[in-house]
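Q: I'm writing a short explainer about Tyrosine--tRNA ligase for a general audience and would like to include a description of its predicted shape. Could you first generate the structure from this sequence?
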Amino acid sequence: MSIIDELKWRGAVNQQTDEDGLGKLVNEKAVGLYAGIDPTGDSMHIGHLIPFMILKRFQLAGHRPYIVIGGATGSIGDPSGKKAERVLQTMDQVRHNQDCLTHQMEHLFGQDGSFKIVNNYDWLSKISLLDFLRDYGKLFNVNNMLNKEVVASRLEVGISYTEFTYQILQSIDFLHLFEAEDVQLQIGGADQWGNITAGIDLIHKQHGADARAYGLTIPLLLKADGTKFGKSEGGNIWLDPEKTSPYEFYQFWINTDDRDVVKFLKYFTFLDEDEIKHLEATVADHPEKREAQIRLAEEVTEFVHGKDTVVEAQHITKALFSGDVADLTASEIEQGFKKMPSVTVNADQKNIVEWLVDDTKIESSRRQAREDLTNGAIRINGEKVTATDVDIDPTSAFDGKFVIVRRGKKRYFLVRVTN
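A: Of course. Here's the predicted structure. Afterward I'll give you a sentence or two in plain language.
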């Protein structure tokens, strides 16, 4: 199966500029290809990951992926998908974001020399205004630019000249990489079709209609409920572990709808067709086991965060399900209880009834606290506490940083301890 056939099987091809030509090219040579990302933030989220999964598949198939960090284009703003002008960032912000994204890409693609990260600031910043207008502006027809969907969608509310020129700058990117690095294929989301075809047109104008340059876009990924993939109720799912912990990341994939899990296995894992078909059968025959979701969570979490974080996420999941939290580390507590009700107390030892009522406010009254304790409804750090006349030492577990209180069967509270 060729790389293009594999992408089709995975449902990852929306449009190709020349299907026959690209099919022949990938069978002839190790193709240089690229996808870009503008440094509008200091982390990718899982929606950003989609085109780079395609680049990774090409890398594994022996091709030459290039990642363009848009230090120049990111400083002016891509009009795609936006109803209004972007707020311009300072160049210091752009540079910080560039560094963060570069680090993430190096983690995903490795450092074995089989891929290359470039920054379009390195060539776009060297073009003077007059050179831009004479060498490139003359080659772009305004009528054609207005008809591009990315621009046409903004005409009613208005678009600045700055954002209007974005497709020219991105076209120059493709031309530069074509000339300097023998890059012949650009990958992007469905909304990037106009920018990609503009780049190919520019290459043809500069190098002739026979120049072998191609574009491939990926379908907009929707969930079974019709909503856009990539967000949870709490917002974006980030690749940065400080923004979305590996445990939360793992849980996002575990909670995938049965109707979506096979599609996501095709998009976001490197499992082969036979294994995915087997997992598809388990969804149909034994959905309650959630084998496909577990495998999906394992594969994507390992790809993004590493194998150790999968083990850690599974450890937290098991502890929360069983209630046996005593063996968790302080780091695992921080991840697993991040979204649970929390309160901060001092490190002083205190009678447990008073502590539950006065310090943590977990119990509404001393009477209720005593009743819950004697009924066995309170667990402290995984241990059932039934006595009402004992003191609690908040620093006795989890490096003295946390106390985990469980009230009833499911209600957890994270108590943070300050010295």
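A: For your explainer, you could say: The chain is about 45% helix and 15% strand.
Q: Perfect, that's easy to follow.
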